[in-house]
Amino acid sequence: MNFASDNWAGATPEVMASLQRHNGGFAPAYGGDALTAAVKQRFSAIFERDVEVFFTGTGTACNALSMAAVARPGGLIICSADAHLRNDEYGASEFFTGGMKPVTVPCRLGKIAAADLEATLARYPAGNRTGRSVVLSLTEATEAGTLYSVNEIAALAGIAHAAGLVVHMDGARFANAVAGLGVRPADLTWKAGIDLMSFGGTKNGCWAAEAIVVFEPGRWPDLDILKSRAGHTFSKARFVAAQFEAYLGNDHWLQSARHANGMARRLADQLTQGGRARLAWQAEANEVFPVLPKATVARLRAAGAMFHPWPVDEVEVGSDEELVRLVLSWATTEAEIDRFVGLL
């Protein structure tokens, strides 16, 4: 009953088989192999336009290097208060950008509203001595498991572009968002105004495969150098490419995400049946946030259930209750969910 994080799940059999399949023989190093070239073309097909792709091993590297690519002196990174690049990456974006400062926009369940973005940008007019707004980073799916619609992203990107900002997407759970919304990847990204993104694979069944995707090739020519200086130019890049070959092939990435999302819906439905628990908000991707009595939380943990507390200001929680996060993955089974709910 492991609902701690989709990061805790292993790689899918398809990804592992691809790694084994491409392990034999020799291939040019540093991304000069045919497999890497083919996988990058696959990204272009998925996004329905020519894109530039830079492999990394972690989502933190994708975010930090994306910020470094667009950085300007005295720059501000506009993001939600929940943003991973602000809260969970040890200041990597500040470090790699030479000191760009994250500035938070108030958010509701992980999502930024257009009016709040406009108000935040207005606090930093041209000529102010705090800094200049350089980039807006949006997380899809959000840290709260909620989803921006295509129209919501387009509205936020439009405000940002009008103010001269670049728009970045942290897509660590992008597959879950695409599957949850039932939209095309292109519609949720460049067609809605996203300029570059961190494309995640690790949370959804890869071993260590992430990518920076630039929707206007050549726009940030220093990215390749920045990636190398950060230690993310892999000698044996074919093994990142091998993961993506399996991940993106035959829509495996979306099948894995649909499974995780479906398990989240199953869990949410069973939690609310008969008043077993109350949901802090509705699950939209692969994360469920129930409020449980503290005694129940202790009993679940004693029985081997793995999950994390997730306190947020937007939800009222009693003194004898706790808000927790349950994350479902490609590897979650119905039996795990049934056992967990049975303990309630």
Strand content: 15-25%
Strand order of the largest sheet: 1-9-8-7-6-2-3
Number of domains: 2
Write the H/E string, N to C: HHEHEHHEEEHEHEHHEEHHHEEEHEEH
CATH topology (fold) name of the largest domain: Aspartate Aminotransferase, domain 2
> Which bin fits the share of residues in helices?
25-40%
Total number of beta strands: 14
**SS summary, helix count:** 14
CATH top level label of the largest domain: Alpha Beta
Query: Would you identify the CATH architecture of the largest domain?
Result: 3-Layer(aba) Sandwich
Q: Structural class of the secondary elements?
A: alpha/beta
Shape verdict: globular
Largest sheet data: 7 strands, mixed
Q: Using only CA atoms, what is the Rg?
A: 20 Å
Low-confidence stretches: none
CATH superfamily of the largest domain: Type I PLP-dependent aspartate aminotransferase-like (Major domain)
Ends distance: 13 Å
